[in-house]
Amino acid sequence: MPQLANQIAVVTGANQGIGKAIAKAFAQEGASLVLCARNGDKLKKVADEFTQAGAKVLAQTCDVSSESDVEALFAAVQQRFGWVDILVNNAGAFDGGPLDEVSLAAWNNVVGSCLTGSFLCSRAAFRLMKPRRSGRILNIGSISAQRPRAGNTPYAAAKFGVWGLTQAIAIDARPYGITCSCLHPGNVQVERRTDSGVSSDDEAMMSPETIARAALAMVTMPADVNFLEAIVLPRDQAYLARG
């Protein structure tokens, strides 16, 4: 039997990159999918692709930093499926530069997408998971939460916050049989890197599918086990001696 048969999985930022790869891996293991992203056109293409492959899909445009958008998303989930088994908080944004040049708009965009969005979606999912006394929340962090780079203030701060949020949720959720975990990827060859000209020839990179394999492992642990934290990075990426 597929590992996620009869489970409902919500994946944010699912229209490309890591989110799309995770959603695909979950669908291949039998999960019904709830996909959201800000770009509705890209999201529809992905939803159609998965539906044609046989998955049950609910796709909804959503800015996870907006409380009203998130509440509308989970209301639609409850109406369509009735509950949530898995939430993957993957949606995010990247921006940075020298500290004295970082705009408040850039800061709010990154923190809103990465951290506030994870809080809002986790809160909404928790409300559906709590009565069932089961569920898993997986936050996509970053090694920037442990080894920040120069010119990376908004993203590093947001991802440090995601790791703190993970631990706080795990404590509040465990009396109800709910786990909360954090997956920290290193360099992944996502569209943002490709579009900016950074390729696997320039730095050690992983595919989004590699992160999806790790995510699947984390959410398929026994119900009484929390795979609390994982760091997945290319063998040749500087991390312990990151500069």
Explain what the structure shows.
With 243 residues, the chain is of the alpha/beta class. It has a single domain (8-232), classed as NAD(P)-binding Rossmann-like Domain (Rossmann fold, 3-Layer(aba) Sandwich), CATH 3.40.50.720. The protein has helices at 17-28, 40-52, 67-80, 104-129, 153-173, 191-195, 208-219; strands at 8-12, 32-37, 57-61, 86-89, 135-140, 178-185, 229-232. Strands 3-2-1-4-5-6-7 form a seven-stranded parallel beta sheet, sandwiched between helices. α2 links the parallel β2 and β3 (57-61). α1 (17-28) crosses α7 and α3 runs parallel beside α4 (104-129). The longest helix is centred in the middle third of the chain and has 26 residues, at 104-129. It is globular, with a radius of gyration of 17 Å. The mean pLDDT is 93.
In N-to-C order, the SSE pattern is EHEHEHEHEHEHHE
CATH class label: Alpha Beta
CATH topology call: Rossmann fold
Q: How many independent structural domains? A: 1
The main sheet orders its strands as 3-2-1-4-5-6-7
The description of the largest β-sheet is: 7 strands, parallel
DSSP strand tally? 7
Low-confidence blocks of residues: none
Overall mean pLDDT score?
Answer: 93
Distance between the first and last residues' Cα = 45 Å
- Inertia-based shape: globular
Count the helices. How many?
A: 7
Structural class: alpha/beta
